[in-house]
Design goal:
Blueprint (H helix, E strand, L loop, with lengths): L7 H7 L2 H21 L6 H33 L1 H22 L5 H7 L3 H13 L5 H19 L3 H5 L5 H19 L8 H25 L8 H29 L1 H4 L5 H14 L5 H33 L4
Helix pairs in contact: 2-5, 2-11, 2-13, 3-4, 3-10, 3-11, 4-9, 4-10, 5-13, 6-9, 7-14, 13-14
Protein name: Drug/metabolite transporter (DMT)-like permease
Main location: membrane
Subcellular location: Cell membrane
Length: about 325
């Protein structure tokens, strides 16, 4: 699918998948850090619901033309869109915010390192996609970098690491999101703006009963400057911009190639956690960053070579 009609400076960006993936990881890292920042201040399901309601309202005026054009497709593929909304919009985000009430921001960021492996598992289970050797090596290299950071340079710490309930919720959320990333290739052929608007709207509707339950049980939003700042960020950055970028990148290079870039989230997130939450950087952070970036480079190089080989076989008349 070609890039949508955009101002000239943005057309090149929308066709640069690796830049889009880097920016996506930065925006999503900020989302997790701020989710931890308002833990106990804004109920998690309410935060997720307001995030997607706001993002839908902001995007709808720009997407109306595509929505009108795609209305027959939306009706025909409603249940497919509902599945994508439930997995990629509702469950993943609400569960992540809920988990951040019980675990640290860095824990949440570092656990994102499981995402590329989970995406690969889902892609194989659903579509029999196999990782190239270089892609697997890149993912494992990046994972070693994340483990170095988690262990703080002491493997004994890693061996005796005990996850809390928040970490478990994040892993479940990642398993669900990896499924979304894998099945994104089956998305109906809607325009990018209409597709994103529809799944955000459906995701927000799915979250309404949970937000009502929160309110009924006494978990009420504290409306102040902090809340307004966080809501503004999550509605625009990790919602509108990051999902549009990620969906486009997966469309261009596939889920297995896009997934290793999620290892950048701990890199960006650690810097943000240091800035916002007062955490300290150490040598093992820097070593972990180096391994993460090396792993992403390996995986990307292998994926590019794989596409070149495929094109060459096709030109040679391979079946």
């Amino acid at each position: 699918m070609p890039a949508p009609a955009l101002p000239r400076p943005l057309k090149g960006l929308f066709n640069a998948p690796y830049v889009l993936l880097c920016l996506t990881s930065l925006l999503w890292a900020g989302n997790l850090v701020l989710g931890r920042y308002v833990a106990g201040h804004v109920p998690p399901f309410t935060l997720a619901m307001l995030r997607w309601i706001g993002a839908t309202l902001i995007l709808t005026p720009f997407a109306l033309g595509q929505i009108r054009r795609d209305l027959p497709l939306i009706r025909a593929h409603f249940w497919s869109l509902l599945l994508l909304a439930g997995t990629g919009i509702s469950c993943f985000n609400a569960m992540s915010y809920y988990a951040l009430q019980y675990t640290e921001a860095l824990n949440g960021l570092l656990l994102q390192s499981m995402a590329p492996l989970l995406v690969a598992v889902w892609c194989f289970a659903l579509f029999r996609d196999r990782l190239r050797l270089g892609q697997a090596a890149g993912i494992l290299t990046s994972l070693c970098g994340v483990l170095l950071i988690i262990s703080r340079g002491d493997m004994d710490t890693l061996i005796h690491l005990k996850p809390n309930i928040g970490d478990v919720w994040i892993l479940i959320a990642l398993l669900i999101y990896a499924f979304y990333a894998a099945i994104l290739r089956t998305r109906p052929p809607l325009g990018p703006l209409s597709f994103l608007t529809v799944i955000m709207a459906l995701g927000a509707v799915l979250l309404v009963p949970f937000a009502i339950w929160e309110y009924a049980t006494g978990h009420v939003l504290t409306f102040d400057t902090r809340t307004v700042f966080v809501l503004a960020y999550v509605m625009v950055g990790p919602s509108l911009i990051a999902y549009l970028f990620f969906n486009r990148a997966v469309e261009l290079v596939g889920a297995n190639t896009a997934a290793p870039f999620l290892h950048l989230m701990p890199v960006f997130g650690t810097a943000l956690a240091i800035a916002f939450l007062g955490e300290q950087i150490a040598w093992f952070h820097l070593g972990g960053y180096a391994l993460v970036i090396t792993g992403i480079a390996l995986a990307t190089f292998a994926a590019r070579n794989g596409r070149k080989d495929t094109r060459a076989e096709g030109q040679a008349g391979a079946p």
